[in-house]
Amino acid sequence: IVTINTNGKNYKNGVESKEIGLFEEYSILIADGVISQIIPNSKLSEIKYDKKIDLTDKIIMPGLVECHTHTVFAGSRAKEFNMRLNGKSYEEIAMAGGGINSTVKSVRESGFEELVNISKPRIENFIRQGVTTLEIKSGYGLSFYDEIKLLEVVNKLDSLYPIDIIPTFLGAHTFPPEYINDKEKYIDIIINEMLPYISEKKLAKSCDGFCELTAFSTKQIEKIFIAAADSNLNLKLHTDQFNSIGGLELALEMGAKSVDHLEVLSDVDKVANSETVAVLLPGVSFSLQYNYAPARKLLDNNAIVALSTDYNPGSSHINNISNIWGLAAFKMSMKMEEIITAYTINSAKALGISEAVGSIEVGKSADFSIYNAKEYSELLYNFGNNLNVTTIKSGKVAQKSAPILQVRDETNYTANRDKDTIPNNNCSKPKVLTGVNVLENRNFDILENKRVGLITNQTGVNNILISTIDILNNSPNVNLVALFGPEHGVRGDVEGGEYIKFYTDTTTNLPVYSLYGKTRKPNADMLKNIDVLVYDIQDIGVRSYTFISTMGLAMEAASENGIEFVVLDRPNPLGGIKIEGNIVEEDYISFIGQFPIPYVYGLTCGELAKLIVGENFIKTKPNFKLNIVSMENWERKMDWEETGLNWIPTSPHIPHSFSPYFYPMTGILGELRNLISIGVGYTLPFQIIGAEWINSKKLTDKLNSFNLPGISFIPITFKPYYAFGKGKYLSGSQIIISDFNLTNLTEVQFYILFALKELYPDKNLFNLSSKNEIGMFNKAIGTDKIVKYYNDNLSISEVVKFLNKDLSKFKEVSEKYYLYY
C-alpha cells in the first residue's frame, strides 16, 4: 500500500515528496465509503467485516487526481499539430486563426448533449487509468451562453460518473474574436454577467485565467480575480508559460491554490515555501517541443509540486498518464516517489480538497488505484502502458479493467456501513434485463406453439441491440405471423403525426398493420390468425406520448377477440417515483390522453397495463389474460444511466436518454406551434422556448425569478433548421436541469406561459392561435381550465394548485399495481 501519509499536513513539499509511506502486508477497512482503519494483516482475524478483497501481488495507491485538464471540447486541431511539426510556433498558429479560438468556434457550434457525449470516452479513459478526481476547465466558449454551457456539461458529466469531476471557470482563457478590439467589454461580461451567474448557480469551484502577452495582462487578471474571490471561488492561474509578466507574483499575493505551467520560471524562490502549488504540465512541453518547467529546482527548494496532463485539443492532446510520468522522470529529473506524490496529494492540494482525498489515511475517502504490479517502481519501468486494473471511488468500483478481485463473504464488519460499500466481484450494479431479455432467457416459454402478433418499433431491442422482431422471427419455437406499428412506424422511420398505411416488412416479409392511420385499434381482420399479441415498445413516461394509447387500445381489441396480451416490460426513463399533473377529464379523452392518469404517471408500461385493466379504463371480458414479463434488477429510483441500457431514440425528437426529462416541460406548449418554438427543428428539442418577438434576457430573468427547484434558465438565440421559425433567428431561454429529483417537470411550461403573458400582454397566445391548435392544447393537458385561467387572469399559483389536486389519490391507486420497488 502506497499511503502518501501526510500526518494531517495534507500536502508534501521538498524532500518530503519522496516519503510515500509504504505499508506491506496490511489491510484497509472501509465504512460508508471512508477509510476507517489501516491494520496489519496479522490482526485481521480480530475484525468482523462483510467482504474481503484479496489483492495479493498488487499495488494499492491513492486514487489519482487530475488537477488541470480541458477535457470538454469539440473539433480537431490536427492541422495545427502538423503546422508545429513544420516549425510554426504556438503564437504563429494562433495568429493564423488556430489555437484556442479554433476550438471556441467548434464548441459554439456544438449542442449540450453533443459535448456530453464526445466527452464521455475521454473521462472513461481517465477512470481506466486510476483517476478518481478530475478537474475540467471551461474556456472554449468565451461568451456568456457558451461558457455556462460548458460548465453545465461538466456538472452533467459529474452526475453521470462515480468519480468526482470538478468544474473550473476559465472565461479568461483568451479574448474571443468579437471582443479583440474591445477587451474591457469582455472583461466586464466576465465580471458582471458570468461570475455572478456561476456563483449563484454554483457551477464552478474555482476561477482560472491565462496571464500571458497574447492573452490577459496582470491588471486584467487582477480585476477578474477580485470579482472571483468575492464570488467565493478558489483562484488558479496559467502563468509563466511563454513570458513572465507578473502573473506568478499576482497569484501568490492573492493566495491562489495553484500556479500552472511555469515553463519560463526563472526565480524558484518565489514559489518555494509557499502553500500555492506549482502544477507542472510536461505534456505541453513535449507537444510544443518547448522548455520544461524546473521541477528539480522547485523540489530542491521546498516547493509543493503537482503534475497533470493538461489534456486539451491543441498544446497537449495527451491523456496517457503513464506518458506524463515518463516525461516527468526523463525530462524533469523527478523521482518515481515524487511523481506519485505530485499526482495524488499535491494535485488534491492544488484543487483545495487534500483534506478529503489524495492519500490513504484514516478518515479520507476510500479512493484507490490498483495496479497489477508487485513494486511501485514497475509503474515507471512500464511507462506508456496502463497497469491499472481497478479504480475504486469512495469504496465502490468505478472501473474494472481486469478480473483480479477475489471477494469472499465473511462475518459482518460492524462499523455502521452499507453492505454494498465494498464492491463485489461484479464490480458494478448488474444491467437491467428488460422483458424481452427475460423472455429470451426463458426460451419464449409463454409463446410456444402460438401464433404471435408483435406490436413494436425501433426501440424494441434486447440488451445487445437485436430487434425483438428478429429475435422472435428467428426463434424456432415462436411463430411470428404479423407486425403492428405505432406512431412513427414499426422501424421508427416515419415523422410524428403522419398516418401510416398497411405494408410488408422487407426484412421478414411479414404484414405490418398500422395503428397510427385510419385504424388506431386492431380490428378483427388484423387479429384473425393470432393467438397472442405481444407489446414491446419503450415509452417515455408521459401521458401524451401515444405509445401507451396504442397499448391500451390493443389490449381492448385483444380482449374483444379472445386473444392473450403480453407486455414485455421496460424502464420508465423518468423513474418510478415522479408523479405530476392533472388527471384527464372525460370530455378530453383522446389519443394523446387516452386514459384518466396524470401527465407524468410514474409507472412502467407493464404496471400501467395492469392499472388500465384493473381500474376498468378499457372494456375487457372476464377471461381476458394479461401477462407481464417483468424486468430484472430495475428499481423505481433508477434513472436511465443506472440501468446500463442503451438509449434508442423513441421518436425523431427524443434522441437522447435525457430527452424525456424535457418533453413534459414544454411539450404541451408545442401545440401552439405557429407562435413559439420549443426547439423542434433545432438541436435542442423540448429544451428551449423562443420566438422572434421574445427578449431572451427579460424572459430568462423572469423565469429565474420563480426560483423553480432543480432547474434554471439561460438566454439563447437559435435558428431552427425546420418547423416553426425555420431559417430565422429566434430568442428565448434554455432550460438547464441541475437536480432532476427536485424538479416538477410538468409545471415548467405553465410558468413559461404565464411569464410570456406578463412580459408581452399584447401577445395573448390563445387569441392568436387557431381553434385546432387550442383544441390540441386542451387535449394534451386534458382540460380546458388552463386556457380559462389564462384568459381570466388567474395566477400561476392557481394553475399549479389545479395540476396537483389529484396526485395523492392516483398514487394510492397506482401503488396496487407496482411490480418494482
UniProtKB/TrEMBL annotation:
Cofactor(s), by name: Fe(3+)
Domain Amidohydrolase-related, chain residue ranges per copy: 59-397
Keyword vocabulary terms for this entry: Histidine metabolism, Hydrolase, Iron, Metal-binding, Zinc
Domain spans labelled Peptidoglycan beta-N-acetylmuramidase NamZ N-terminal: 452-656
InterPro entries for this protein: Amidohydro-rel, HutI, Metal-dep_hydrolase_composite, Metal_Hydrolase, NamZ_C, NamZ_N
Residue ranges constituting the Peptidoglycan beta-N-acetylmuramidase NamZ C-terminal domain according to the UniProt record: 662-820
One Gene Ontology term, aspect cellular component: cytoplasm
HAMAP family xref list: HutI
Name of this chain's protein: Probable imidazolonepropionase
